[in-house]
Write a structure and sequence with these properties.
Length: 280
């Protein structure tokens, strides 16, 4: 019995050691990707901030608020652009995004533009109205792809396929903190009452400027959110693999202790049997 127990423990140790090698390798890969992901994220933010300020200024300057991008309409359906991961093993990264969507939609009918393989899989399994499967890889998604996506989303909004457009992504705060954010893109949220009028001088009418700039703004905002989300995914995966590696190390130490105890027990039993045989 002791011999069989020792054999099982030894096999278990080898299995855990193999798993630890995988988690350690994934941790190193995530660490190498994280620096580039953070640089990409930081580079994308200035354009999104400036474009957002221009959009808000144009919205504030529009004398009429009944243009499609500003005027709200009865809410019959929402569209969520949901940015999740290309793969799993990233802690609660993907699950937190999906929980936020399901908590926010409540009883309002909705459709989804999923970005990332896990997002596509999740909403197909949930039998949601999925607009496209074309964006299955968030890593390396380009500004050109975001521009194409922005035009598609704007066309759907203007055709009244949905009445609100929401962006759901994960904001990178630090190596250990990433927060799920929900942001309404359309209709454009109006500035607070009492906000000072914008001082921008427009060559065209503000509403014409708004219509012209909107696709570029939306493309920039999507690209910035994608960069933010990918940096968050990599950081979350690095943390998850670091924890898994440490847990595997602790498990190996416990198993080695059990193995040594079983080995000592087997030796003690053999000595006892020898002594007993000698006495007879």
């Amino acid at each position: 019995m002791a011999g069989a127990s020792m054999k099982d423990i030894k096999l278990r140790i080898k299995s855990v050691e193999s798993t630890m090698q995988i988690t350690k390798a994934m941790q190193l890969v995530a660490t190498s990707k994280l620096r580039r992901a953070k640089e990409r994220m930081e580079t994308s933010k200035p354009y999104a901030a400036i474009a957002g300020a221009a959009i808000r200024a144009a919205a504030h300057s529009c004398p009429e608020k009944n243009i499609p991008f500003l005027a709200g309409r009865p809410l019959k359906k929402r569209c969520y652009v949901v940015i999740a991961g290309d793969r799993g093993l990233a802690g609660g990264y993907n699950a937190n995004v999906f929980k936020a969507v399901l908590s926010h939609c409540q009883d309002v009918p909705y459709c989804v533009m999923p970005l990332g393989k896990k997002s596509i899989e999740k909403f197909h399994r949930g039998h949601a109205d999925v607009l496209s499967d074309a964006y299955g890889k968030v890593e390396g998604m380009t500004v050109g792809q975001c521009a194409q996506l922005a035009r598609q989303l704007i066309a759907g909004y203007l055709a009244e396929q949905y009445d609100e457009l929401w962006l759901v992504y994960t904001s990178f705060q630090s190596m250990i903190t990433q927060n799920v954010e929900m942001e309404m893109l359309l209709p454009i949220p109006m500035p607070e009452e009492g906000a000072p009028p914008a001082s921008t001088i427009y060559e065209l009418k503000p509403e014409e400027t708004l219509e012209m700039v909107m696709p570029d703004f939306l493309a920039g905002r999507l690209y910035s959110a994608i960069c933010d989300s990918f940096a968050s995914e990599v950081a979350s995966r690095r943390s998850a693999m670091d924890s898994a590696t440490k847990n595997a190390g602790e498990m190996i130490n416990d198993l080695r202790l059990k193995y040594n105890r079983a080995r000592q027990g087997a030796i003690t039993q053999e000595i006892t049997e020898i002594v007993a045989g000698a006495e007879h």
